Automatic annotation (TrEMBL):
Lineage: Eukaryota, Metazoa, Ecdysozoa, Nematoda, Chromadorea
Protein name: DLH domain-containing protein
Spans through the membrane: none
A GO term for molecular function: hydrolase activity
Species of provenance: Caenorhabditis japonica
Boundaries of every Dienelactone hydrolase domain copy: 18-240
Matching InterPro entries: AB_hydrolase_fold, Dienelactn_hydro, FrsA_esterase
Pfam families tied to this protein: DLH
Length: 242
């Protein structure tokens, strides 16, 4: 399938400008769409490849930019410093950027706005779960090794109409057991449609082929978990977009 890609600029109400990347199948008309949220480094070739793969499956894919146009951290410490204020205040700082990215995707003429889902990796996993928590009418969200903590400032109201799939590394020391247990309790309280998969021997960032080069404790690529989780995500998209 022929795929076209382009970068698009979009802005939030605070005047921040972002630069996302969209992948569109040839002759696309009113297709289901998937919003892709990057890991802590921001948009990299990894997320772009995922966007391309989704477009090859017949979806419009939009790789969202949460840091801002021209802000592309090169070093690990720089990436964490850029991400920190968004994670520290998820309601005031992160939520507007999530909603702005979703709005930008829905403005694309090729998108069927009634069939939109979101996937995210690491930091991006937190982002898609928050979109579900805000009841943004997404068909599905898929979190890969994302943070699971709830948003303390918002009530635990039911999550309506969004299927949730979480892929967690069973050997992930960055996401503690209390987060896992707390997430299950939150989803039950919210009466959510959720599936939680714990992948044996997988550490944090297990989908990222470059994870071993990060030289960080508890972080590493796991090919089996990466392939299984991706296959499960695609199966869910096929289900909710049918």
């Amino acid at each position: 399938m022929s795929i076209s890609s382009k970068t698009i600029d979009y802005s939030d109400e605070q005047g921040n400008t972002f630069e996302g990347v969209v992948y569109i199948p040839k002759n696309a008309k009113q297709l289901p769409a998937v919003l892709v949220f990057p890991a802590f480094r921001g948009i990299t070739e990894f997320e772009k490849e995922k966007g391309h793969q989704l477009a090859e499956l017949g979806y419009v894919a939009f790789v969202a930019d949460l840091y801002g146009k021209g802000i592309r951290p090169k070093e690990r410490d720089e990436a964490f410093a850029t991400m920190k204020p968004l994670v520290y205040n998820r309601v005031d700082n992160l939520k507007p950027r999530l909603l702005t990215s979703l709005k930008a995707l829905k403005t694309l003429s090729e998108v069927d706005v009634s069939r939109v889902a979101a996937i995210g990796f690491c930091f991006g996993g937190l982002c898609v779960l928050d979109l579900a928590r805000y009841n943004t009418q997404l068909k599905a969200v898929v979190s890969f090794h994302g943070t699971l903590r709830p948003v303390p400032e918002i009530p635990l109201v039911p999550i309506v109409g969004t299927s949730i799939q979480v892929h967690h590394g069973d050997a992930d020391t960055h996401i503690a057991k209390d987060q896992v247990d707390g997430f299950h309790e939150e989803m039950r309280t919210r009466q959510a449609d959720f599936v939680f998969s714990s992948h044996a021997k997988a550490m944090h960032s297990f989908t990222e082929p470059e994870a071993d080069s990060f030289n960080a404790p508890g972080v590493g690529y796991n090919e089996k978990a990466a392939k299984r989780s991706w296959k499960a995500a695609i199966s869910l998209l096929e289900e909710v977009f049918a």
